[in-house]
């Protein structure tokens, strides 16, 4: 072999290969793993320009890939006050008052990350905004799940929102008995009305935020992620990142296909499949068959306890099916957000009709509640189940007292986030975060997957502990299964010769450290495409 560009030494290397002697040294050349072996082998690999990094007692793993991420939507959505710690209306008004002390761009008070559980039994409205800031302040609050937002009365006025409206999707403007908007805007077409009147970010500021995000991702141990958005400036942001050097994280992007899409829109998605750079590419199309449980926009077989979540986000689900059929026919792998049992069933039926069209299997995102007959179909149809353990552990409670559980009722909440059942029935699980909906740090997500509660909160009762993954299963969800779900099983996801040199290094061994402990593990190094992306 030619001299290595980089040699990594560590006491433990989790290769992801099924057999072979223990590995303690990894040689990298030309962006690929050139050889693996023992410390004594480095004599044969070393050349005059080889960099050798001795990581001592650390553990090398295949590079971790997040299955579901919103990088570009996220940098737009995480502006202003962070409300992720708000637990009550009193917390909310206090946080908004603080935010109102330094009014942001264009006179707006912006905030994000609000869990509707903060409202308890009270409907979600703009009343706390008015209480905190008065009626005349421009204020927009993004709910944690990005499926709804709250606008202040003045903001709604500016956006021309003065009563109920019809949308092409199942979006809506929540109104009181007299038809006056309550401030709560549900789903994207409605929340976009607010976005349109808010001042746009400066492009330079967006580039800087994007760069910071990718650097922080690499520092958490991620080497790649699947982008579930491809916004107007996504290509520019990726390209700008590559003009300045190399992206610290690889990306596969699935542009969004909206309900109401026409033939030109679908053709544009096919055309976009050619887009890409050195470390990013478009590969897929993202649909949503339904919304979310929390605001009553999911698609359930039977209504939730408030009589909601009864239909698809597509006014005619057949239109979804036709769009999937068209794109799949053009060889585009399909990604569909499906949360309610009826939505999951419909998407499985659709995938069954369409069949596999490319090396990349179709995939489904979230899968929040489903009966057992659906669980078994993921393996049978070779559909990737892309799941986000933090959704369960951060936004629901074992006692069923949270908004999500109350809306579903005990039977359906009892069959929630069945990640282990899908896995045990032979299904492929890609793990991820859905950032900015939930925190992306993979160490914390792996802990959530293993514990069914947030890391380092031992007082929290686990939710459905039978659905916990083992350490090996959780790591596979970020490595070997992540590669398989991208059709790249023979290219990446393991530390074996010939594979892409995407490598994560942790101070603690993810397979033997306790999950709470591992959530706090140092990340001394990440390597992407054979070059150092992060070094502590
Ligand atoms: Zn998402």
List its salient traits.
single chain; 536 residues; alpha/beta; six-stranded mixed β-sheet; five-stranded mixed β-sheet; 20 helices; 32% helix; binds zinc ion
Model description:
- The protein is of the alpha/beta class and about 525 residues long.
- The chain contains 20 helices and 24 strands.
- β12 (about 170-175) and β13 form a beta hairpin.
- α10 (about 315-330) packs parallel to α11 (about 340-355) and α14 (about 390-395) crosses α17.
- The two termini are about 30 Å apart.
- It binds zinc ion (ZN).
Strand content: 15-25%
Shape: globular
Count the DSSP helices: 20
Q: Main sheet: which strands, in order across?
A: 8-9-10-11-13-12
The total of beta strands comes to 24
What is the mean pLDDT? Answer: 94
What about the largest sheet?
Answer: 6 strands, mixed
Ligands present = zinc ion
- Content-based structural category: alpha/beta
Helix content: 25-40%
Query: Rg, please?
Result: 23 Å
First and last CA, distance? 30 Å
Low-pLDDT windows of residues: none
Summed up, what is this model?
The protein has 20 helices and 24 strands.
């Amino acid at each position: 072999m030619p001299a290595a560009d980089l040699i990594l030494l560590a006491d433990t290397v989790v290769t992801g290969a099924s057999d072979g002697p223990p590995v303690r040294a990894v040689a990298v050349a030309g962006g690929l793993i050139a050889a693996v072996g023992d410390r004594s082998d480095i004599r044969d690999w070393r050349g005059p320009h080889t960099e050798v990094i001795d990581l001592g007692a650390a553990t090398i793993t295949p590079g971790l890939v997040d299955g579901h991420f919103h990088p570009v939507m996220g940098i737009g959505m995480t502006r202003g006050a962070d409300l992720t710690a708000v637990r009550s209306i009193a917390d909310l008004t206090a946080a908004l008052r603080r935010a109102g002390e330094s009014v942001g761009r264009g006179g707006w008070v912006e905030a994000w990350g609000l869990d509707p559980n903060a409202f308890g039994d009270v409907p979600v409205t703009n009343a706390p905004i008015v209480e905190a800031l008065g009626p005349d302040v421009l204020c927009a609050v993004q709910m944690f799940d990005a499926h709804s937002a709250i606008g202040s009365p003045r903001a709604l006025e500016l956006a021309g929102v003065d009563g109920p409206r019809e949308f092409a999707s199942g979006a809506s403007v929540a109104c009181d008995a007299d038809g006056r908007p309550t401030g709560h805007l549900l789903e994207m077409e409605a929340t976009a009305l607010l976005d349109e009147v808010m001042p746009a970010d400066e492009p330079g500021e967006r580039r800087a935020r994007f760069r910071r995000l990718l650097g922080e991702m690499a520092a958490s141990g991620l080497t790649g992620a699947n982008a579930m958005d491809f916004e107007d400036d996504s290509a520019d942001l990726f390209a700008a990142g590559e003009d300045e050097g190399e992206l610290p994280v690889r990306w596969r992007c699935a542009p969004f296909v909206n309900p109401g899409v026409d033939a030109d829109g679908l053709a544009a998605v096919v055309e976009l499949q050619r887009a890409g750079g050195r470390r990013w590419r478009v590969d897929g199309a993202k649909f949503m068959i339904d919304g979310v449980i929390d605001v009553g926009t999911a698609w359930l077989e039977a209504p939730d306890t408030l009589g909601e979540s009864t239909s698809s986000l597509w006014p005619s689900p057949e239109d979804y099916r036709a769009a999937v059929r068209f794109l799949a026919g053009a060889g585009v792998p399909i990604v569909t957000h499906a949360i309610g049992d009826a939505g999951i069933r419909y998407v499985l039926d659709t995938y069954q009709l369409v069949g596999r069209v490319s090396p990349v299997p179709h995939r489904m995102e979230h899968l929040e509640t489903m009966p057992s007959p659906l669980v078994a179909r993921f393996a049978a149809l070779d559909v990737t189940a892309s799941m986000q353990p933090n959704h369960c552990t951060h936004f629901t409670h074992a006692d069923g007292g949270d908004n999500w559980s109350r809306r579903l009722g005990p039977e359906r909440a009892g069959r929630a986030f069945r990640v282990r059942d899908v896995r045990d029935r032979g299904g492929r699980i890609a793990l991820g975060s859905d950032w900015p909906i939930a925190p992306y740090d993979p160490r914390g997500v792996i802990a959530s997957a293993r514990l069914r509660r947030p890391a380092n909160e031992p007082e929290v009762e686990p939710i459905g502990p039978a659905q916990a993954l083992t350490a090996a299963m959780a790591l596979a969800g970020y490595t070997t299964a992540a590669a398989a779900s991208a059709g790249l099983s023979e290219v990446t996801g393991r530390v074996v010769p010939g594979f892409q040199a995407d490598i994560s290094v942790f101070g603690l061994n993810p397979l033997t450290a306790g999950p709470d402990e591992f959530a706090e593990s140092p990340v001394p190094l990440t390597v992407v495409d054979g070059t150092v992306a992060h070094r502590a």
